[in-house]
Design a protein that fits this description.
With 382 residues, this protein is of the alpha/beta class. Helices cover 28% and strands 24% of the residues. 51% of the residues are buried.
Length: 382
């Protein structure tokens, strides 16, 4: 497969733009990228349109909640235990949910799928492609553990008359789980090195070991400034690689977050101030954070905002000061780096997955739609 005569935004580290370029793909991977010779021919003539990496929604609940179904289609929260790191979100995703098709039609080729925010320690996060019938084949693997701070766990467990009902208790639940997992890991290592007896299997601690080893990331649900700093505090305490999800008050503390070299996944953007901790919600959040040097990705938090409105969400951030280059990176390379999948997606480079989307003009304008979407080297009907 060869695409020619495209204006290519590679979104690589140099943010290279090839005014008239080509991309070759074979067996689902990009095999060559470069400038077109005059009168080049290929399987697809882009006719001067703009070619981008497939867009990535870096925080969703895609396939976990089916619109119009109710409880039977809700698989976000196992809200009977504040600490559930052993839950694998891949076991709850319905890949035939209609939202996957809507994602593809908007140029969204990959999504990070997370548990809900009812539990302080909510479960395992996976990245998936948006095309396929079987989630095992769509999965790009385990990428993180979801932690939740603030009002959601408070409200969930206050209604149950159980702990945690304060921010202190939420942080304590998280710390206890991480301390237990660290000790469990040490006991396992000691037993293996000394040919001793392994400790009794602990599924919760086992699930947290990749996080403590920095093989995957901690995704902290946090809106209010104090909750954001609690996330940073816990992450630093346990040397975690982490992402701040939502980060609603981020622009108010952007200088502090820049000092910490944070990554912020901003969104939902198209929403109201639906709870007290979102009182300072601002569409300028992404722009002000990026200006301060914080790496920014934009998300929909689907189904809070339907995933097909990811490009529109980015457009609103642009309207409120986010430059085009930063806007594009927020759903390509930055989003991939936030999820830990930048070795496969997020830029148009040799060896990366052939996930591409072709637009005639600015993809973040409300009237724009992709004229072609490619996932793993296969053109998806739009």
């Amino acid at each position: 497969m060869k695409i020619v005569n495209a204006k290519i935004y590679t979104c690589d580290k140099q943010f290279t733009v090839i005014e008239n370029g080509f991309v070759e793909a074979e067996n689902g991977k990009i095999t060559a990228v470069g400038e077109c010779a005059p009168n080049s021919t290929g399987d697809i003539d882009a006719q001067g349109k703009s070619l981008f990496p497939g867009f990535i929604d870096s925080h969703t609940h895609l396939g976990l909640t089916t619109g119009g179904v109710g409880f039977e289609g809700e698989d976000l929260n196992e809200s009977v235990d504040a600490c559930t790191p052993q839950l694998r979100i891949i076991d709850g995703i319905n890949p035939l949910d209609f939202s996957f098709e809507l994602a593809r039609k908007a140029g969204v080729t990959a999504a990070v799928v997370s548990p809900g925010s009812a539990n302080a320690v909510a479960g395992q996060i996976y990245a998936v492609k948006t095309a396929g019938k079987r989630v095992d084949k769509m999965s790009m693997g385990l990428v993180g553990i979801k932690f939740s701070l603030g009002e959601n766990p408070k409200m969930t467990y206050n209604d149950r008359d159980e702990t945690p009902v304060t921010r202190m208790a939420i942080a304590a639940v998280i710390r206890e789980a991480l301390y237990k997992a660290r000790r469990y890991g040490e006991d396992v290592d000691k037993a293996l090195s000394e040919d001793g007896d392994l400790p009794e299997y602990d599924i919760k601690s086992e699930a947290l070991l990749p996080l403590l080893d920095r093989k995957i990331k901690a995704h902290f649900h946090c809106h209010r400034a104090d909750d954001i700093f609690t996330a940073v505090r816990i992450a630093n305490e346990f040397s975690l690689d982490y992402v701040l999800v939502h980060c609603t008050d981020g622009y108010l503390i952007a200088d502090e977050l820049s000092e910490e070299n944070c990554t912020a996944v901003i969104g939902p953007v198209i929403c109201d101030r639906c709870k007290p901790e979102m009182a300072s919600l601002s569409p300028e959040n992404a722009a002000l954070l990026a200006k301060s040097g914080v790496k920014v990705a934009v998300c929909t938090d689907h189904s809070e905002v339907p995933i097909e409105y990811l490009p529109l969400s980015v457009g609103i951030c642009m309207k409120n000061g986010l430059p085009f280059d930063d806007a594009l990176l927020s759903v390509t390379r930055n989003a991939a780096e936030a999820a830990g999948i930048a070795d496969r997606v997020g830029s148009i480079e040799t060896g990366k997955d052939a996930d591409l989307t072709l637009f005639d003009g600015n993809p973040f304008e409300v009237m724009s739609s992709p004229s072609m979407v490619m996932i793993n080297g296969e053109i998806i009907g739009v």
